[in-house]
What we know:
- By secondary structure, the chain is an alpha/beta fold.
- It has two domains: 3-125; 132-406, Rossmann fold (3-Layer(aba) Sandwich), CATH 3.40.50.1820.
- The chain contains 14 helices and six strands.
- The chain has helices at 3-38, 43-77, 82-92, 98-126, 159-165, 181-199, 211-222, 243-251, 254-270, 278-283, 287-297, 300-303, 335-346, 393-406; strands at residues 139-142, 170-172, 204-209, 229-235, 317-323, 363-367.
- It has a six-stranded parallel β-sheet, with helices on both faces.
- Helix 5 (159-165) links the parallel strand 1 (139-142) and strand 2.
- Helix 6 crosses helix 7 (211-222).
- The mean pLDDT is 92.
Amino acid sequence: MTGRIAACRFGVIMLRIFWWTTLIATVTLIASLTTMLAADWPTPWANSWPSWTVALALTIILESIIFWIGIITVYVTSVQLGIKIRVIGVLCGWIPIANLIALRLIIRTVDEEVRFESAKEQLNRARAAARICATRYPVLLVHGVFSRDTKALNYWGRIPAELQRNGAVIYYGNHQSAASVPDSARELTERILHIVQTTGCGKVNVIAHSKGGLDMRYAIARCGAAPYVASLTTINTPHRGCGFADYLLEKIPLAAQKQVEAAYNTAASHLGDKQPDFMAAVHDLTQAGCARLNAEIGDANELHGNASTTGPFAGIICQSVGSKLAHATTGKFPLNFTYPLVKWFDGPNDGLVAQPSFPWGERFTWLEPNGTRGISHADMIDLNRENIPGFDVREFYVQIVAALKQRGL
């Protein structure tokens, strides 16, 4: 058990102690008060009230200490509480009955986190010697559009640390947040060449999310990255585009598009992008844009679920993954707003990309866990660091990389 999880466990224990001791103390104090008042009034009260008052004061002080130790501990150390439950706890803290309901929610959430993370810790310790993610070639993680690779907030959430713990060597694409597919592909090709030349690894296993999958397909087919790529796994990539993007570009006035583009490009430049191009990135995600790119890339075999025996993709393991969000209400902002729009145009989707657009390569994995939540576009990169019932995103990536190792990659 890690230090953080041990602290979470301690916090839960303190809150449970508070819950039960407060209940027992409250019943006891009320019973004693009732007994005093039921006796010959006011003589028993005059003789007993000092000790009863002292008992009440001591109870309040001790219970307050226990509560604040517990609540501060879980608020500081828990990941799964998130902002929502923390705010609920603060707002309901002084409302009778509601505060008890909020406290039970906090205890249940953190307790489940402790159980889940403890089981994961045991699993990782049990297989540590096997180093199941120690692939022949290092793993290159390629982010999607409107994001960057930063140390402060890892695009891939807790996934890289989990892969590294199981033996993987990880690199990042480090390309701009928004650019056309060809421009991003050229950046990624340069990055791959740099990794290969500086480490002598020969090739890389690429895992690319969203637009990153399009960027890597273009890099392999048109920019010379093919000899240095052992495998390409695309995660929720819109290989056939996003129909709602075409619709929005038709309906939103050009002047408004230009304003958004200028604002984004300016902000991205300040954050480190050399030549951000918001609209170029957006246009390459439309169905029309992807149709043009697919023709230019020329990987029709992969688009139809087959492996190429000739051409730039020959000898490269090509596979894809897609997921489904069950309802708009189960997605985080802004996917809870975009989900109905995508569903209207293209059917089942992850909040941004529809099911028909996901498949590519010789193997396609469709993720649709039991329950009413589903898995969103953001869940697939652990953006919210949320433990989703029925889907362990970190273990999913561990198994992807472990399978690559088993294939000698």
